[in-house]
Amino acid sequence: xEIAVISGKGGTGKSSISAAFATLSEKVVLADCDVDAxxxxxxxNPTHTEEEVFISGQKAVIDKDKxxxxxxxxxxxxxxxxxxxxxxxxxxxxSCDGCQLCSRICPVSAIxxxxxxxxRMFAGxxxxxxxxxxxxxxxxxxxxxxxxxxxxxxxxxxxxxxxQTIIIDGPPGIGCPVISTITGVDYVVIVTEPTxxxxxxxxxxxxxxxxxxxxxxxxxNKFDLNTEMADTIExxxxxxxxxxxxxxxxxxxxxxxMVNCKSIIEFAxxxxxxxxxxxxxxxxxxxx
Length: 288
Ligand code: SF4
Ligand code: SF4
What we know:
288 residues, elongated, binds iron/sulfur cluster, Alpha-Beta Plaits, 11 helices, alpha/beta, Rossmann fold, 2 domains
């Protein structure tokens, strides 16, 4: 069973909930697909038995010895990634889209394309099973492709080790990496918070999971910070036949747990918050 935990926006407490779920089962595969900001490895400190280079794309590089400063490449680059600075033609790595056009039109073949190879996929063991995660290097692209690699790896590990549950910590938003995260999973949990933007983003996220026809439920985190908005969110979910499987109150222990590199289940197992998350997880396993 693959369970993806996502949120329409960052900062809802999605990763804290994923970490809690990952420590509720004795043996799971935990896949951190929030590849732009993977952080569960900090909490769980997994061993790295595997490390794979992820080629996220290509960037253009100028050989200054060959370049005649003719300026042709500047005229052709549609991404404004090339400029002349102090009489020398320079490529700005962060603006380069890797389209290869400049390398093709350069009359003296001074531009070559090089692989962007700073991103990684890691796999290893953590205290509740196996863990896989991707780390996209700053400025590198194709996060959706890295998410697919992490998910494929998690599935293979689950099969090889006869592990039945994969918990996926997804990225925030509704973009390509989120689609890659939820495609084909058995269950999606959307974590939201009781704010206007939380409701707005929840609506967009629910639309996506509804389009993909995936079993979906919602956890309203920190619901007691705005009970009126929490009620509005709950009503919206009911109207759209989506269950609210948990209303978690604000509890500073969740942050304390993270600071201590533990999930709330490990840090304060008898706390009200831990009990509520356990109940939510039980509902997921019963419904999926
Ligand atoms: S087209 Fe080639 S030679 Fe001309 S400025 Fe660009 S890199 Fe230099
Ligand atoms: S590869 Fe494309 S985007 Fe990058 S510098 Fe060359 S023309 Fe511009």
